[in-house]
Specification:
By secondary structure, this protein is an alpha+beta fold. The protein has three helices and four strands; from the N terminus they run αβββαβα. The protein has a four-stranded mixed sheet with strand order 1-2-3-4, sandwiched between helices. β3, α2 and β4 form a beta-alpha-beta unit.
Length: 114
Amino acid sequence: MRLEDFSAVLDLLAQYNMAPRPASEEIPDPERSGIAVENTFVAERDGVLVGVGSYFLHSGDLAETASLAVDRACRGMNIGFLLQTARLKEMRNRGVLKVRTETDRQETIAWYVR
């Protein structure tokens, strides 16, 4: 991810209600309050950002997958798989031995299991 991708990444994450937000009275502990550019991958198609996948590095050997989103118009094109593969490879290269992930979407759970 490049800094200039920030706005497009936020727009894409908003499609799935995953955009980071600051803490507030209504949501004192949001799921995500920012984006670590150095831990975020993007996918482009014809010069347009169509996918994003990121992770958090918790310690030297523990990481957690973060947002993984693909523009609805581009689903089924293997973009999510490529983003998932890229972030897992990067985590491995950084010495991560354990990866934690979380999702509440049944189709995503089934996809991860496959």
